[in-house]
C-alpha cells in the first residue's frame, strides 16, 4: 500500500488531495485500487494512515499521530455545498436491510471496471426512488447535486451516462434471482404470507419508434396514448401489496392470454404451493378457468358483466347478507358443483352507475334529436348519417342499448332517422346497477372472506399508480429491448424499497403511506464548513444538518440513526 496525490485545479490553482492505494494481482496483471480517500491531509496524518493500513498501528489509526493545532480565522469561516442527503441515505438504509447490496456484490462478478457494477446499479435504483429521471440527468445533475457520493463513497467524476447504461446491462441477467431473493427476504423481515396472490396487468408507452424492440406494439393503452407503441407489464403482489414478481409482454398482448404464462412462471420460480389466485375479470375466460382447474389451483376471479344475466332471478329474490354498510352479498352455488358464485350489490356503485347511465342517455337523446333535425332541414346521405350514428353510439356506449335507431332512404333519396327507447333494457339496467359477480372454487370461505380477498386487487392497482406517478416508469425513452427490460427492473426494485418503507411505517405506527415520511426525511441536508487557518490551509468538514423535532421523532420510530459527520469523498470540489 502507498499514499498518492490527486491534483485538481480550482480557480486557477492546483490543489493536492490524497488517497490510499493498494496494488492487487489480477488475471490481466497488477492493478491499483483505491482503498480510501484521505483528502487534504497533513504529512503526519498521511503517515499514520499508511502505517495503520500496513498493520503497524491496527486499531489505533489516529491515537499515535502527533496532534496538530491550528488557528482558525473565525471571520472567514463559511458554509458551502448544502445538498440533499436524507433521500439517498434512507434508500441506502433500505437496500441494506433487504440485503440488496450483498446480493448485487455476490451475483455481479468484478471485471476491469474502475467502479464496481453493483455500486453503479445502486446509483440507478436510489436515483429512481429519490428523483426519477434519465441516466444523463442522473450523471450530470442529480448525482452531483445530492449527497449520493457521500452515501456510496463514489466520487461524482466517476459517474457518467455510459457507466449507468452498462450497469443496466449487468443488472438485467439477475432479474429472476433478484425477485426470488426479495420475496424471501421480505417474508423474513415482515412475516409475510404469500397464500393470496393478486395479479393485474398495465401498460407503459414509448417515446419514439422503438423499432429495435419486438415487444413494442400498439395495443389497448391504459395511459390514453393509443398513438404510441407500448409494452404490457404483469405484476403479482401479496395481499398487502408487496411485490412477488413481474413479467413484460408485448404491447398488443391480450390480458387474458398472460395469466397462464404468469402463473406457470411463478410456480416454476417459487414452487406449487397451495395459493389462491385473485384475478380481475379482464383476464378471465373459460379457457383460463380450465387452466386454473387443471392444475388444482384455487382462485377468486371477477366475471364478465354479461354473466350477470344468468342470475337475474336471484337479484330479485331475498337472501342477501349485509357484510358492511352499503354492501350486500349472496352465495349462488354452481349447477355443475365445485364452484360458487358470489353476487355483490353496492349502494355507492349503484349511485355511480345510475348517474353515468343518466348522463349518457341525455347525451345520446340530444345527439339523436340533433341528427334527426339535420335530416329534416336538408337532404342528407343515408350512409353519412349512419356513420354519424355509429360514432355517437360509440362515444356513449354506456347507454347505447337503450336506444333503437334506424336510418333509411326516403323515395327522393333523403336520409330518414327513426329512433325509440328500449324500456326492457332500462328495466335490466335499473335492476343490475351496482351489482357484480365473483367466481371461486374456494368453498370453505364465507361470502365476506371471498369478497375481501377479491377487493385486495386494489393493492395491485395501487402498485401501478406508484410506478407511474412516484417512480415515473412512463414514458420509456429507451429503444433497445434489453435496456427497456432493465429500465422496468430498476423501477421494480425502487418500488420494493417504497413498499419496504411502507411496511416499516406501519410497524412503527406511522400509517401505511410512506410518501409523506419519505418527503420529510428527504429534507435533511449535508453542508460543508470551511475553516481558514493562519497557515493558509483551509480545513473542510462535511456535516449532516441537525433534524428538526418532527424529523427526529420519525427517525426514532423507524430505528434510524443519522451520522453526524461525513468524509469528504467528492474531490471535484
Write the layout of secondary structure elements.
Layout: E1 2-10, E2 13-26, E3 29-39, H1 43-53, E4 78-84, H2 86-97, H3 100-107, H4 117-130, H5 135-142, H6 148-152, H7 161-171, H8 175-190, E5 196-205, E6 230-237, E7 243-250, H9 255-270, E8 276-279, H10 286-294, E9 298-302, H11 312-316, E10 321-324, E11 327-333, E12 340-346, H12 347-377, H13 382-395, E13 403-409, E14 415-421, H14 423-432, E15 435-440, H15 447-455, H16 457-468, H17 481-507, H18 514-522, E16 525-532, E17 538-544, H19 549-558, E18 565-566
Parallel strand pairs: 5-8, 8-9
Antiparallel strand pairs: 1-2, 2-3, 4-16, 5-6, 6-7, 9-15, 10-11, 11-12, 12-15, 13-14, 16-17, 17-18
Helix pairs in contact: 2-4, 2-18, 4-7, 4-17, 7-17, 8-17, 12-13, 17-18
Per DSSP, the total helix count is 19
Helical residue percent? 40-55%
- CATH homologous superfamily (4th level) name of the domain at 193-302 and 445-479: Ribonuclease H-like superfamily/Ribonuclease H
In terms of DSSP E residues, the strand content is: 15-25%
Any idea of the CATH topology of the domain at 193-302 and 445-479?
A: Nucleotidyltransferase, domain 5
If you compute it from the alpha carbons, what radius of gyration comes out, rounded to the nearest whole angstrom?
32 Å
The top-level CATH class of the domain at 193-302 and 445-479 is Alpha Beta
Sheet of most strands: 9 strands, mixed
In CATH terms, what is the architecture of the domain at 193-302 and 445-479?
2-Layer Sandwich
- Roughly how many Å apart are the termini? 26 Å
Gross morphology: elongated
Task: Give the overall average pLDDT.
Answer: 88
Which strand order do you get reading across the main beta sheet?
7-6-5-8-9-15-12-11-10
Oligomer: single chain
Amino acid at each position: 500500500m502507498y499514499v498518492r496525490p490527486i491534483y485538481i485545479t480550482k480557480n486557477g490553482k492546483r490543489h493536492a488531495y490524497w488517497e490510499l492505494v493498494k496494488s492487487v494481482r489480477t488475471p490481466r496483471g497488477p492493478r491499483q485500487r483505491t482503498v480510501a480517500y484521505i483528502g487534504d491531509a497533513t504529512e503526519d496524518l498521511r503517515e499514520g494512515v499508511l502505517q495503520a493500513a500496513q498493520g503497524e498501528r491496527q486499531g489505533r489509526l489516529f491515537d499515535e499521530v502527533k496532534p496538530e493545532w491550528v488557528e482558525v480565522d473565525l471571520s472567514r469561516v463559511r458554509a458551502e455545498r448544502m445538498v440533499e442527503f436524507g433521500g439517498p441515505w434512507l434508500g441506502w438504509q433500505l437496500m441494506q436491510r433487504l440485503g440488496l447490496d450483498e446480493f448485487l456484490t455476490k451475483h455481479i462478478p468484478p471485471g476491469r471496471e474502475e467502479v464496481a457494477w453493483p455500486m453503479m446499479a445502486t446509483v440507478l435504483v436510489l436515483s429512481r426512488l429519490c428523483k426519477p429521471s434519465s441516466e444523463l440527468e442522473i450523471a450530470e445533475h442529480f448525482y452531483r447535486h445530492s449527497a449520493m457520493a457521500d452515501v456510496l463513497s463514489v466520487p461524482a467524476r466517476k459517474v457518467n451516462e455510459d457507466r449507468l447504461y452498462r450497469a443496466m446491462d449487468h443488472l438485467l441477467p439477475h432479474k429472476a434471482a433478484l425477485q426470488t431473493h426479495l420475496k424471501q427476504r421480505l417474508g423474513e423481515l415482515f412475516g409475510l404470507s404469500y397464500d393470496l396472490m393478486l395479479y393485474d396487468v398495465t401498460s407503459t408507452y414509448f417515446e419514439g419508434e422503438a423499432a429495435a424492440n419486438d415487444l413494442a406494439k400498439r395495443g389497448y393503452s391504459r395511459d390514453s396514448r393509443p398513438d404510441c407503441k407500448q409494452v404490457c407489464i404483469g405484476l403479482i403482489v401479496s395481499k398487502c401489496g408487496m411485490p412477488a414478481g413481474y413479467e413484460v409482454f408485448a404491447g398488443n398482448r391480450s390480458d387474458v392470454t398472460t395469466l397462464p404464462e404468469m402463473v406457470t412462471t411463478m410456480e416454476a420460480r417459487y414452487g406449487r404451493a397451495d395459493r389462491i389466485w385473485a384475478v380481475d375479470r379482464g383476464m378471465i375466460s373459460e379457457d383460463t378457468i380450465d387452466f386454473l382447474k387443471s392444475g388444482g389451483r384455487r382462485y377468486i376471479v371477477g366475471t364478465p358483466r354479461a354473466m350477470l344475466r344468468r342470475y337475474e332471478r336471484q337479484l330479485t329474490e331475498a337472501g342477501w347478507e349485509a357484510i358492511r354498510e352499503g354492501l350486500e352479498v349472496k352465495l349462488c352455488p354452481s349447477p355443475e358443483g365445485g364452484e360458487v358464485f358470489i353476487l355483490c350489490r353496492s349502494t355507492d356503485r349503484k349511485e355511480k352507475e345510475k348517474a353515468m347511465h343518466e348522463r349518457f342517455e341525455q347525451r345520446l337523446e340530444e345527439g339523436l334529436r340533433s341528427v334527426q333535425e339535420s335530416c329534416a332541414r336538408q337532404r342528407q346521405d343515408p350512409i353519412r348519417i349512419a356513420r354519424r350514428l355509429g360514432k355517437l353510439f360509440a362515444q356513449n356506449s354506456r347507454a347505447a342499448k337503450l336506444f333503437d335507431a334506424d336510418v333509411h332512404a326516403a323515395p327522393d333519396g333523403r336520409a330518414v332517422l327513426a329512433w325509440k327507447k328500449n324500456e326492457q333494457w332500462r328495466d335490466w339496467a335499473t335492476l343490475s346497477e351496482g351489482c357484480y359477480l365473483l367466481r371461486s372454487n374456494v368453498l370453505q370461505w364465507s361470502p365476506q372472506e371471498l369478497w375481501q380477498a377479491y377487493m385486495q386487487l386494489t393493492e395491485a392497482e395501487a402498485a401501478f399508480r406508484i410506478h407511474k406517478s412516484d417512480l415515473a416508469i412512463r414514458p420509456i425513452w429507451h429503444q433497445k429491448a434489453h435496456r427497456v427490460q432493465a429500465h422496468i427492473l430498476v423501477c421494480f426494485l425502487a418500488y420494493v424499497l417504497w413498499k419496504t418503507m411502507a411496511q416499516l411505517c406501519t410497524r412503527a405506527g406511522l400509517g401505511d403511506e410512506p410518501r409523506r415520511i419519505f418527503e420529510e426525511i428527504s429534507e435533511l441536508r449535508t453542508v460543508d464548513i470551511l475553516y481558514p487557518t493562519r497557515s493558509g490551509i483551509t480545513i473542510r468538514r462535511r456535516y449532516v444538518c441537525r433534524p428538526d423535532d418532527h424529523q427526529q421523532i420519525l427517525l426514532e420510530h423507524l430505528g434510524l440513526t443519522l451520522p453526524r459527520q461525513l468524509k469528504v469523498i467528492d474531490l471535484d470540489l
